[in-house]
Amino acid sequence: MATLLKGLPVSKAICEDLSVRVRALKARGVNPTLEIVRVGEREDDLAYERGAIKRCASVGIDVRVTVLDGTCGQNVLMDTVARINEDDSIHGCLMFRPLPAHLDERAACAALLPSKDVDCSTSESMFGVFVGRRVGFPPCTAEACMALLDYYGVNVDGIDATVVGRSLVIGRPLSMMLLERNATVTTCHTHTKDMKKKTRASELLVIAAGHMGTLGAEGVRPGQIVVDVGINWDEKANKLCGDVSFDEVEPIVEAITPVPGGIGSVTTAILAKHIVEAAELSVS
Question: What angle do CA 273, 278, 283 make, to 5 degrees?
Fold first, then answer.
């Protein structure tokens, strides 16, 4: 039976530290504040919004929510970003993506100040991840994976790691973060030949493909650590599941994150961490 790498103790440790830092900021007259920008009523955005608000409240961070109509024009969105940039009381902005197809997402992201970009939506923030330099903030989920590995004492220095997925939200930045910590990284994607051979060869597997059942028993071996980043709805079982076929993989590997109960709670804790860091930098 594999060790379960649960997210709750990781997020709890992060938030205990954040609560102390928020109290110190408030003693200096600084009230850490996040503004969420949501266009429309996508259910996944609403779910993340609820989680983010709850997490921020738990450590004393204020949250403002701006909801734009799903048919709003580009000018309305750009005006919203400009207002956030100019408001010194707002330390971080979380703009839910993808935006509706009629909106220019790149322009909206480019307009946001990197100093308020707490989930790596700007090119400057992504540049910082790829060159190992602090510019803005890295993607919350990618950093959450690193935080979870650190909490459970997984030393990635010199480890053979495979990341399944190459999105700019998780796969690519996480590969860069692992490389920065001296892991040897293989990135797999939909065009990878014999992916199961590559996943079996690695000591650490991070699965961020966005598809249920991406990794099964044939893709793993004993002794591996598996981090499942996926969030999917299994209609047959009527429950949330990850990208990993948990019941097949868990009896084989050494350690694995559950879904739900794994990376998700750590991601919102990292979001809160980025807001606190942004607030601290604003008065440093």
Answer: 130
199 and 252 in contact (C-beta within 8 Å)? no
Q: How many CB atoms lie within 10 A of CB 102?
A: 10
One-letter amino acid for residue 226 of the chain: V
Whole-number Å distance between alpha carbons of 200 and 195: 9
CB-based contacts of 32: which residues, under 8 Å, 6+ apart? 22, 25, 60, 61, 62, 91, 275, 276, 278, 279
Q: Dump pLDDT digits (tens) for 99-151.
A: 999 999 999 999 999 999 999 999 999 988 888 888 889 999 999 999 999 99
User: How far, in Å, CA of 96 to CA of 118, rounded?
Assistant: 12
Domain 30-115, CATH number (from 3.40.50.300, 3.30.70.100, 3.30.460.80, 3.40.50.10860): 3.40.50.10860
Sequence-separated (6 or more) residues with CB below 8 Å from residue 83: none
Distances (CA, A) of 245 to 47, 82, 213: 23, 44, 5
Is the dihedral angle over the CA atoms 189, 6, 126, 87 positive or is it negative? positive
Q: Considering the domain 140-264 in this protein, what is its CATH number?
A: 3.40.50.720
Percent of all residues in the chain with a pLDDT value above 90, rounded to a whole number? 89
What pLDDT shows up at residue 232?
87
Residue 155's Cα: distance from chain center in Å? 20
Buried b (16+ CB within 10 A) or exposed e, 200-221: eebbbbbbbbbebebbeeebbe
Please spell the DSSP secondary structure of 7-26, one letter per residue.
SHHHHHHHHHHHHHHHHHHH
Residue 169: predicted pLDDT: 87
Q: Label the pairing between strands 232-234 and 239-241.
A: antiparallel
